[in-house]
Amino acid sequence: MAKLFINKDIVADTDKMENWYLTGVDGISFSDIQAFIDWIDPSDNHIDIELHSCGGDIVEGYAIYDALRATGKEISATVVGRCASMATIILLAAPLERRKMYPNAKLLIHAPYCPGFDGALDVPTLDALRAGLDAEREKMLSIYVERCGVDRGLLEAQMEKETWFGGEAAKQLGFISEVIMPKSAKVSTIKTVMKKKETTVSQSLLDRLLAKAGYARIEDVPAVALELTTAGGDTLTVEREEGEPQVGDKASPDGEHVMPDGSTIVVVDGVITEIRKKEEESTEELEARIAELEQTVAELTANAKSEEDVKILNAVAKAGGIEALTKAAASKYVPAGRAPQTVGKTEQQKPVSKIETRLKEIREKRGGK
Fold first, then answer.
1. What is the architecture of the domain spanning 2-179?
2. Positions of the chain with pLDDT under 50
3. What are the residue ranges spanned by the domains of the chain?
């Protein structure tokens, strides 16, 4: 198996001297890979790549990617440190089942960009540069989608974030199929004879640790997860030891989860596919809210009671309330002309009007007629 180490920046041959002057390292170019391929024994059908590079020149990177795949050999690739930018394209020269990385290795993907410019640039030149960058971004995304086999939106989101991600996220995004775990040294076989009974001890250190923790296999160990409380009081579980949830993390349950800070985490098929930040209120919404608060303040002010009002109400309450005061103030005066008069003990004398008295006098004068 031929071993290929790509542990430098990817540069063109013409830039090696400048790179050496600036960084102390010349870099690796397409011609170096050509020389390596020519050196391989024709009967050797395997190329094993170890990647520790932060990327570099786009043209050189694609040339290396194409040349490795054109050999027709079985290619394996392992990320041993950092793999970023165009180095991730070279990683994809190997099929998914033969792409791996170590636990502490990291990957980073981003959209192509141009270095700074000296001098003035006109609009047509800037438009041409933008069109070229858009084309390179589309080309890179197409290779990611084809070789990783995941949704384009997930890869675009990761490119826009431009942050390093580890093995579990790399598996979710389809860049690798396995995180290489360290192998424990095997304990030598010990034979102990006791009362003519032989016991053989052949457990590895990992097996002992698993048994001590109560697990038979490494697969039985539960994944470390974060339990987050949503704004509604529900629980969102994210398979991550520390840090903030990221797109690509395993999570449950599915759905859109609004968090206390106003952000929304979208989980589809057990994987975080999107994290939306809290939407800021528009100017119109803020003005409407201010007007509503001002109206509330005005109403409260209009209904507010003075200190004297409060004293009066307290006094009324101590006196037993409005009903008690009403009964106490009711008049018991009876007009004199309406006072009841009694004759004897049982009969009541009716009042006689002046007209009746005058009629009586007239009858008496006429002799009772």
1. Alpha-Beta Complex (3.90)
2. 185-203, 331, 333-335, 338-339, 341-347
3. 2-179, 185-221, 222-279, 283-365
